[in-house]
Amino acid sequence: MTGGADERKTGRTTGPDGTVLLAHDIRSAVSDVIGGVRLMDRDSLPAQARTQLDRVQSSAELLARLVEDLLDGAPRDTAGPVGNLNLRRFIDDELRRWHGAAQGTGVIVNTDLGGGLPDIVQLPLLPLRRIIANLMSNALRHSTGDRITLGTELLDDGTLNLCVQDNGAGLPDDMVWPPEQGDPPEGERHGMGLQIASAHARDMGARILSERSQMGGARVMLSIPKSVWSRIEEPGPDDMLPDLRGFRILVADDSGTNRMLVQVMLTRLGAECEFARDGIEALNWLARERFDLALIDVEMPMLGGLDVMQSERLRQARGVAPPTSMVAMTAYVRGDNKDAILEAGADGILSKPLGTIEMFGAAIWQFLKAAPDSSGWAPETAPALSAATLSELMRAAGPAQEADLLDRLREDLRIVERALTDALDRDDLPAVAAQTHVLLSLSSAIGALPTQETARRLNRLARDGQIDAVRATGKVCLTRLAQLRAELVHAN
């Protein structure tokens, strides 16, 4: 009883249930950071700020995966079969991160991709990122040169090398402890980055090698045999299986058996996949990363599949999430249950048991072909007006005030449009800043994301005194404001 009273006094939760709640809160907080970064207007930022934004996003995504492992008590990539990894996408993501990390140091970070590289490799993502992180950190800290290259090469025997090389003096001797000698004794823990990288490499069946670089510095390689990285079963010409290379799929299912079954089939088909074990975890994945398709189990703990789909569809309607196709997985596909699933926002239903890989692959391929293309999605491409947000605002006002509120919104936007047009015609930057401040408030209240983002950019440009950019962006802002006003004409 005392423990419970103490918990109520302090507001803390302990024990298994409290730990689970804390874990979900941490995951949600990290996902909020990544989701917020994703919604930032990247194009409106200066070049240096864009570089740092890329760095923050990449590092935050790595942090999210590390948090998952820390909270779970064991790395996820060590359990079950290893999934697919898009090699070029991985290298591009790493370049974004380390280009930002090197900014201000005088060091240029670039990539060198060899010929004949596989599109897809079967390697655990998190250990791979930790290896590259340690090798790149060492190069940035200890190289005296001005260039670091993250490269890949495929040798004649199929060995895949991921290389970090610099044109400096290389690592000093006292920073290296030969990996084959195990952990260094206390007091002699030099080169711990290489020790960590070597440990992860050994766990995946690879090894760390080093040599003098042709650039004049050190060349440290993660050398991965073909038997480790190559796909176990390449579909043959007569397999009649779709090639899903390049597609990313989220699988949310509380059954470990089902997750492993789906992973084996998706890996065979060439897709990359991530996994969630409950509804909250699924929403966190959707908030922080993009997927071509989400497979959502209807019955899950913490938050059910129907709630997940409804919540994500609401975020999409508000314009704060890219369009993503969602497919429900359930053993109950009849009558009212089917109607409820489709009403929740499902684009289709996969019946359990999932059947053969041929049947599963054919179904997934059909869903992917019908899925919306979200590659070019940005907040400014959202609908001119979020019907969901406006509906919530109307409900909050109450039936008696709905008409008055709409009339007031229309009039306020008309006044802002006239005043902003006048300010732009006169190149009156303080007035432009003042009117866009009002427009920001109005557009955010009704979920008008395109107008909101353009008004934010125009406000910043006006305050910075960038007259030419203000003129160009002002035209875009007025166009989006006109579109918003047109949408409100038909709102009831």
From TrEMBL:
GO cellular component: plasma membrane
Catalytic activity: ATP + protein L-histidine = ADP + protein N-phospho-L-histidine
Protein keywords: ATP-binding, Cell membrane, Membrane, Nucleotide-binding, Phosphoprotein, Transferase, Transmembrane, Transmembrane helix, Two-component regulatory system
Membrane topology note: Multi-pass membrane protein
Classification via Pfam families: HATPase_c, Response_reg
Residue span(s) of domain Histidine kinase: 21-228
Main location, first listed in the record: membrane
EC number: 2.7.13.3
Cellular localization per UniProt: Cell membrane
Family matches, as PROSITE patterns: HIS_KIN, RESPONSE_REGULATORY
Gene3D superfamilies linked: 1.10.287.130, 3.40.50.2300, Histidine kinase-like ATPase, C-terminal domain (3.30.565.10), HPT domain (1.20.120.160)
GO molecular function list: ATP binding; phosphorelay sensor kinase activity
UniProt cross-references to CDD domains, sorted A to Z: HisKA, REC_hyHK_CKI1_RcsC-like
Limits of the Response regulatory domain: 248-367
InterPro entries: CheY-like_superfamily, HATPase_C_sf, HATPase_dom, His_kinase_dom, HisK_dim/P_dom, HisK_dim/P_sf, HPT_dom_sf, Sig_transdc_resp-reg_receiver
Modification sites for 4-aspartylphosphate: D297
Protein name: histidine kinase
Organism: Jannaschia donghaensis
